[in-house]
Amino acid sequence: MPQHLTSKGNRRRKQIMDYAAQEFARNGYHQTSVSDIVNGLGVGKGVFYWYFESKDMLLREVLAEAQRDLRRVQRQAIADEPDPLHRIAVAIQASFAWLASNLHLFLLMEQAKVDEQFASLVRQGEETAIADALPHVKAGMDAGLIRRDDPVVIAYAILGVTSSLARLMIVERGEDPHKVAATAIAFCLSGITAKKVLPAPVSTCRK
Amino acid sequence: MPQHLTSKGNRRRKQIMDYAAQEFARNGYHQTSVSDIVNGLGVGKGVFYWYFESKDMLLREVLAEAQRDLRRVQRQAIADEPDPLHRIAVAIQASFAWLASNLHLFLLMEQAKVDEQFASLVRQGEETAIADALPHVKAGMDAGLIRRDDPVVIAYAILGVTSSLARLMIVERGEDPHKVAATAIAFCLSGITAKKVLPAPVSTCRK
Amino acid sequence: MPQHLTSKGNRRRKQIMDYAAQEFARNGYHQTSVSDIVNGLGVGKGVFYWYFESKDMLLREVLAEAQRDLRRVQRQAIADEPDPLHRIAVAIQASFAWLASNLHLFLLMEQAKVDEQFASLVRQGEETAIADALPHVKAGMDAGLIRRDDPVVIAYAILGVTSSLARLMIVERGEDPHKVAATAIAFCLSGITAKKVLPAPVSTCRK
Amino acid sequence: MPQHLTSKGNRRRKQIMDYAAQEFARNGYHQTSVSDIVNGLGVGKGVFYWYFESKDMLLREVLAEAQRDLRRVQRQAIADEPDPLHRIAVAIQASFAWLASNLHLFLLMEQAKVDEQFASLVRQGEETAIADALPHVKAGMDAGLIRRDDPVVIAYAILGVTSSLARLMIVERGEDPHKVAATAIAFCLSGITAKKVLPAPVSTCRK
DNA sequence: AATGAATGAGCATTCATTCAT
DNA sequence: TATGAATGAATGCTCATTCAT
Fold this sequence. Notes:
Four copies of one chain form a homotetramer.
Chain A: H1 7-27, H2 34-41, H3 45-51, H4 55-78, H5 84-101, H6 103-113, H7 116-142, H8 151-173, H9 177-192
Chain D binds a DNA duplex through helix 1 and helix 3.
């Protein structure tokens, strides 16, 4: 809880965050004890509580920084893309690139998302991502490029495909991020482009 | 650990599984203690260990049963659907219906999926679901209805959209499952259908 | 706690005592639960408490019976031995024979001897054994066959050699009980005989 | 589990070992809970697990140290005794002296000896003691001072007399260790010295 | 006589956090 | 800044015993 950190202090702090993020991702937040972290770093237990208020707060900071970083990358990617569909494509592309080199943070976010204690924090980040994407989806609809539907749902569906393929392909199969990104983009874009709308085969029409 | 349960015992066992599933879903597995469960049920602690080997095994049984049940529902839904695309559609539909009435089990699965201890169990279930879906995806490709791509990736993308929309729409917004299912189906089908060839597999069924 | 047992009831009771004695000897009294016993016998838990007041009382009965039995064997052995030294010898012999065919009871006694809860019970048995032996030791001294020393200490030393060799030889080495008995007798008799006077108390008995 | 202890830490650790050894000896290992120990010392429960991996490991350390200490005393005693019989005598003497001032450790060893969980540990110590004694017994035989017999059995018999008299005399009667030691030495030495071998009165020669 | 179910105090162990140095 | 020591509530689990049937 010190107000100002020396540069050495800043390095220590970063070191703890990085190591903790790795361990949380590997073993799970609840299964990783503060002792595991300080022992793994070879420092005393006091160090931890010098830099972080609690284990809970440490994870919050890790998550917040990860979300900040991912958002920055996405914004950079779409910065000078005028076409709405293209923007979505490069955003997906950029997301995959970031995930591929920050796998542990991706895993950590997925863990936090289903943990009552941290869910709202992650959800806030997602809401921000959705809010970021919304203008482009709407612009696409206005331009007749994207099928008219609830833009929020569309945005969530894209998010779902992205994270699902990210987890399933990258984490479990070790496939090439570029290839998976390409498939995701193809799936999403053809899933949203304005074409005939398929009516849902609701079960009530069979019985 | 008893070999054979009386009918009263069977009821108790089921009661514990149901209550524990609810609590696990609500508070998280790690945050819910065995004491929470038995106190919530108003029984002694020994009761828990009369029926279950451990807290870990209880969750495994809950998950296994949930997966069995979901699979059963999906299989019933596609039982007499001849058309591949339609099969996928009704399977998605059935999944949403099941999820809507078993929200806690869905949340529990999502938790378990990111928990090292249980991930493999859930993943096995997913592999089964993918394996179940694969023949239909392949059939769709052979019939020229589905774009040629890695069928496994296609199947995973569908899974991702489904669970993502399930979570985001149902859990967080309380929207109508039928509507969300419809959007999911629209998104997925147009995401996978062969370009230029857009059959309306369900056109005969209009409300 | 029933007053009178049917013959079937008596068999059950004996069966439980035997099985429990084996398990107690094998795993230790504290490490063997009542459940282990009833499960091992394939009966319900109520059976145990029908026949025995408690786990504690069960062990007490097992021990008491074992001591009764051992004492009976010893008394029979010395019944018609007139010579004091020979009496001691045949008593040791008889003890080894009994121990060899009741290893588990020997182990159980050794356990109980160092367990605060049961030590006094076992000790009582030992006191009885010592008291039984004392007249012969004294007679031996009076006859000038045994060195004058505290007869109680002599008796305890014999007891110590016996149980020590019983444990170390039989339990851990699987040696022939007769041989070990022979060594024990040789050791004890020459350990107590009056110096310079070394009668061969069994010289009339040669194979 | 800490790597290096401060001097304060070392004192604490020793304190816990001493107190636990006393309590284990008095109440029994299984009857003494970790809570009993820390409450008795007036410290928090965590202290115990800061210094010891588990209750089991604590006892192992206590036993190992006791055995080390006893062995050291015995070796010192015989260090400059040239005569084999004399060596055995002073070793017995030294053992009684050590036991008299470490009664609780002696009781603890006897408990551990009959406890499946720790028996092998104690037995190892006994094997070492036997191995230590063996050369002297053999030397005595070679010098014609000790009756020819299995030297291992002889050694065990001495061990048996020693521990038996130690327990029965010291623990239960509060007699003078020197006197008991004298009796034990007399018993053992005359029990092993080379004299006429007494044939065993085998029971088969009576029937 | 016998069963399966239930009780609940008790146990070994963990761990986030605090503190003296 | 940093350390090792200490705290104590909480956890998963056991088990002797009781009870309704």
